[in-house]
Task: structure prediction
Amino acid sequence: MIGPGIKRGTAELAVLSVLEEGPLHGYELARRIEQQTKGALRFTLAALYPMLYRMEQRGWIRGAWEISESGRRKRCYRLTPTGKKKLSPLRKEWSELFSALRRLTKVSHA
Amino acid sequence: MRDWEAIVEQHLSGLALEPAERSEMIAELAGHLAETCEGLRKQGMTEEEAVRLTLLQVEDWQKLSRLIQTTRTKENAMTNRVKQLWLPSLVTLVLSMGLLALIQIFGPKPWLFGWNGRSRWPFVAPALMVYVPWLLSLPLIGGMGAYLSNRAGGSRRAVLSSVVFPVLPYLAFFVLALPVVVILNDHIAHNIMPRALFVGLFAWVLAPGAALLGGGWPAQFLLSRLLVSRRIVGG
Result:
């Protein structure tokens, strides 16, 4: 199980990566992240929305009300051009960090 | 069927946001809870159990309210400060300095004023150098700064700070840097310093500041009157 500190750091990357595939509303976004990470990353409402609002304020994502197939009003989030630009360096940073950790743990086990 | 909106509304009663923003947020969070509950029901849980687990999505409503509030106000404050103060200030500074540089290179010669006393030279230091075209253009730049800050919803203080921003580096120089230079440098004649300070302050701070305010102040006054009348018309 991944600890809360790492989760906080990866949360923005997770949201941006999932939204890159297409617009989603909050509930579906949380579900998709949970499915794709096989339950390693789970967002409760309390964790998800403050982060979404923060990312929206920064201009990385944009929320807009839409009517779903079931006729329900839902706020769908989509990636903005700024968010797309942000995603690439974030991916690189995390990839470098994980590679470094992988190397480090190999050394430790040797 | 639970009224999730009422539940969220009740728990987030302390959330101080604009009414429209608040109700949208409540609708969104309630929608999330409703879908979570439906999802759990589809997994075969009883209504009671599904509701209990759904409510576990938020362990501490006060913390959530505080987090949302902080997110909104902090980010807004940051964005607003940039839009209302720093951006207009930067525009007035760049325009003012750019124009001064152009006038110094391509424009007419500056007007020179000074004291000749008993000297045989026409002027002795400190001489007052006035770039008239620059001074004449400053009210327009001040007005532009006031417009940009006012349009972003800046307070009167933010608007006026943006207007006079170009003279602040000069003010800092004359008030802080110049006395330090005089103290440290023995080669500068100390007897002319009070006069030089006054001349410098007048030429680079007071006169341009007044010119900037000459455009910025009326612009601020007119724009705020316009805003008030719009509010009255809009109810």
